[in-house]
Design a protein that fits this description.
Rossmann fold; 393 residues; seven-stranded parallel beta sheet; five-stranded parallel beta sheet
Length: 393
């Protein structure tokens, strides 16, 4: 009989994703006790007591700052995300923000809404005041894109289609994203090089110690006068005080971001949106479907796709075998020790996959026939094994 799984949801997850979990094998609810996995969108899990029964956490979105990755990694629990599932939604908002900044649309709209009197008076006021909202056109301007993942690549390609020149910077760009990126995107040699050559800078990187305050006073000072900064990644990637100082000094023309704060929201040259980047019906559905499918493949087959803390590990099931799924510290001779325990029990290995990522590794083993409890416990007891389970269905 196939194993049943219990899924705890911490937010409203799109039904398009949840319907991918067959009810005969999955129980899904917000009040589940002893869950096998957690599905989450934006709920903060850092102060949450995560039950020992949890095998995986899947976020229906890209960023995972709301999930305690380090603590889960130490327990051998993979954290999944949905990179690229919301890329089009964010790209469209970034492109819209280019126009908002270039044409001073928000400030002009507020000016128009504030007019009073009859139509003739409004007409006269508009003709007199419109000179205060003169903008610039995008063709020929240079957009600097920091981070060429799914979103950054789409933004870069869309900006080219608008007639802009595009610079890209991402020392860790993947082969897949490089194939998707237009050959017309020029490579910046460094962050300073990108800022110095860009009229508009947009950031599409995760928030970590290396990217916190990436857009700072010294880099903004490198930009041509009248530059624009866009931030639809994470608020802390941009030093807000440095941006405000550059706006007040007239060095920056505008700042558009998705992260309202008291220092920003009322500034006349700042447009703050209420974290709308992935707020489309399509993006929420795409993220939920992607997260659920990855979670299901992990629970049913042990495969890992798009984990932020464990390596990609996908191995087809060998018919008639029992699959051992092992997360462990990335130390020498781990596979040798596991193989020895199985050999001592007379268990033959039909197929094996071992992948590592930083200080963690992941092993999939298809063993001929059944693996008894004693043998499994011997494997699980190896020093450095963080988690282990058997899949028989």
């Amino acid at each position: 009989m196939a194993e049943r799984f219990r899924i705890l949801t911490l937010n409203n997850i799109s039904t398009r994703g949840l319907e991918r979990l067959p009810r005969e094998r999955y129980e899904v609810a917000s009040g589940i006790e002893r869950p096998d996995a957690v599905l989450v969108r934006s709920a903060d899990m850092h102060k949450m007591e995560i039950p020992p029964s949890v095998l995986a956490v899947a976020r229906a979105g890209a960023g995972t700052n709301n999930i305690p990755e380090a603590a889960l990694s130490a327990r051998g629990i993979p954290v999944f995300n949905a990179p690229g599932a919301n890329a089009n939604a964010v790209k469209e908002l970034v492109i819209a923000s280019l126009f908002l900044a270039a044409r001073n649309i928000c400030a002009a709209w507020q000016f128009a809404r504030a007019q009073t009197g009859d139509d003739a008076a409004i007409d006269a006021a508009v003709e007199k005041g419109k000179k205060n909202f003169v903008g610039f056109e995008l063709p020929g301007r240079t957009l600097g894109v920091i981070g060429l993942g799914a979103i950054g690549v789409e933004v870069a390609n869309a900006a080219l289609a608008l007639g802009m020149k595009v610079l890209g910077y991402d020392p860790q760009i993947t082969v897949r994203r490089a194939w998707e990126l237009s050959s017309s995107v020029q490579q910046a040699t460094s962050l300073d090089d990108l800022f110095a050559r860009s009229d508009v800078v947009t950031v599409h990187v995760p928030l970590n110690d290396a990217t916190r305050g990436l857009v700072n006073a010294s880099r903004i000072a490198l930009m041509p006068k009248g530059g624009v900064v866009l931030n639809f990644a994470r608020g802390a990637i941009v030093d807000s005080a440095a941006v405000i100082a550059a706006l007040d000094a007239g060095h920056l023309h505008a700042y558009v971001c998705d992260f309202p704060a008291n220092a920003l929201k009322d500034h006349p040259k700042v447009v703050t949106l209420p974290h709308l980047g992935a707020s489309t019906v399509e993006a929420e559905e795409n993220c939920a479907v992607m997260a659920v499918e990855q979670l299901r493949d992990f629970l049913e087959n042990g495969n890992i796709r798009n984990s932020v803390n464990f390596p990609e590990a996908v191995m087809p099931r060998v018919p008639g075998t029992t699959r051992l799924v092992i997360a462990n510290s990335n130390v020498p001779n781990m596979v040798g020790q596991i193989s020895t325990r199985l050999a001592e029990a007379g268990v033959n290995i039909a197929d094996l996959l071992n992948k590592s990522r930083g200080e963690y590794a992941y092993t999939l083993i298809d063993a001929d026939g059944a693996v008894d409890a004693a043998t499994f416990e011997a494997v699980r007891g190896i020093e450095g094994v963080l988690s282990a389970r058997l899949i028989t269905g």
